[in-house]
TrEMBL record:
<dbReference type="InterPro" id="IPR027565">
    <property type="entry name" value="Cupin_WbuC"/>
</dbReference>
<dbReference type="InterPro" id="IPR046058">
    <property type="entry name" value="WbuC_cupin"/>
</dbReference>
<feature type="domain" description="Cupin fold metalloprotein WbuC cupin">
    <location>
        <begin position="1"/>
        <end position="45"/>
    </location>
</feature>
<protein>
    <submittedName>
        <fullName>Cupin domain metalloprotein, WbuC domain protein</fullName>
    </submittedName>
</protein>
<dbReference type="InterPro" id="IPR011051">
    <property type="entry name" value="RmlC_Cupin_sf"/>
</dbReference>
<dbReference type="Pfam" id="PF19480">
    <property type="entry name" value="DUF6016"/>
</dbReference>
């Protein structure tokens, strides 16, 4: 599946149960943030397209909470995972607000301050 996000897109941290996921960056730059179960940051993977000199492909085999922090105006990537999509195979942590929650802005600012 091809996905396009703008810089201001919030991707709520989530993990996929029982399936792997891979992404290949076509255009743009992104920080993929991996989280521990308690919400602390495990790792930040700086990715970009092939011309950026950054990692452009990543495969996540383990069920780890992750989110995307887009660093360019647009991010275009190819995501591959086993289908069909079943909502119950995606887990969202309590420590990350849902997309329509007013706390999203504060959550983003907090994570940004930790990864920059």
């Amino acid at each position: 599946m091809f996905i396009i996000h703008t810089r201001d897109c919030y991707v709520r941290p989530h993990k996929h149960l029982g399936k792997a996921e891979s992404m290949a960056i076509i255009e743009g730059e992104v920080d993929v943030v991996l989280f521990k179960e308690d919400g602390s940051i495990l790792r930040v993977i700086k990715m970009g397209d092939m011309d950026s000199g950054k990692l452009f492909y990543y495969r996540m085999s383990a069920p780890i909470y992750h989110s995307l922090f887009i660093r360019s105006e647009f991010l275009v990537f190819h995501e591959v995972t086993e289908g069909p999509f079943l909502r119950e195979q995606t887990s969202f942590p309590e420590w990350a607000p849902p997309e329509n929650n007013p706390e999203v802005k504060n959550f983003i600012l907090k994570i940004e301050s930790l990864i920059n």
